[in-house]
From TrEMBL:
<dbReference type="InterPro" id="IPR002455">
    <property type="entry name" value="GPCR3_GABA-B"/>
</dbReference>
<dbReference type="InterPro" id="IPR028082">
    <property type="entry name" value="Peripla_BP_I"/>
</dbReference>
<dbReference type="Pfam" id="PF01094">
    <property type="entry name" value="ANF_receptor"/>
</dbReference>
<feature type="domain" description="Receptor ligand binding region">
    <location>
        <begin position="1"/>
        <end position="97"/>
    </location>
</feature>
<keyword id="KW-0675">Receptor</keyword>
<keyword id="KW-0807">Transducer</keyword>
<keyword id="KW-0297">G-protein coupled receptor</keyword>
<keyword id="KW-1133">Transmembrane helix</keyword>
<keyword id="KW-0325">Glycoprotein</keyword>
<dbReference type="InterPro" id="IPR001828">
    <property type="entry name" value="ANF_lig-bd_rcpt"/>
</dbReference>
<keyword id="KW-0812">Transmembrane</keyword>
<keyword id="KW-0472">Membrane</keyword>
<protein>
    <submittedName>
        <fullName>Gamma-aminobutyric acid type B receptor subunit 1-like</fullName>
    </submittedName>
</protein>
Length: 102
């Protein structure tokens, strides 16, 4: 999950060997940087583990696809859980990364 390394590897792959049509990524930070650059070459980026809601922005990431659902799909479950226990005050602690931004 090192975006700089992922981008470096992508550029190395693009400029060496046979032409590429698809890149595979795993985590959201790498998928974000690779997918944002890959659109310039019209390359498909497929991720098996990225859950960042930001990656759902098809205008920003037009060639990005994933097999792992976005984190936003967990929200209805969280709300139902809170309602089940009649919780009215909920605090969320998160790390400030693009993964958690919408």
């Amino acid at each position: 999950c090192e975006p700089g390394l992922g981008t470096t590897i992508m550029y190395d792959l693009l400029y060496t060997g046979d032409p590429k049509v698809m890149l595979l990524t795993g985590c959201s930070p790498v998928s974000t940087t690779v997918a944002e650059a890959a659109k310039m070459w019209n390359l498909i980026v497929l991720s098996y583990g990225s859950s960042s809601p930001a990656l759902s922005n098809t205008a920003r990431f037009p060639t990005f696809f994933r097999t792992h659902p976005s984190q936003t799909l967990h929200n209805p479950t969280r709300v139902a859980f809170f309602k089940m226990f009649n919780w009215t005050r909920i605090h969320i602690i998160q790390q400030v990364e693009e993964v958690f931004k919408t």
